[in-house]
Amino acid sequence: MRIALHTRVRADRITAYEQAHREVPEELTAAIRAAGATSWTIWRSGTDLFHLIECDDYAAMLAALETLPVNIAWQARMGELLDVAHDYGADGADAALPVVWRL
To answer: What is the model's pTM?
Structure first.
């Protein structure tokens, strides 16, 4: 499945956000892959961030990552950098952008 998300980085934290993503802990990337993600790309336009995630099951991926210390630490770090973080319910369904058109 493909999931598209929209988040927003704080205007004064863009450099720190980009630096953090040059240093994503290998333990975290391994955990994301183990949770079923095959790809995760983030684009930035100003302060807007657009994510495209390819995974087996987004809700299951979130559940698998939720209690991992490396993910908890990463989410805390991102919480300092983002104006709009993942805005999802327990199953992750509220986070995905709806498909409007596809070629």
So the answer is: 0.88
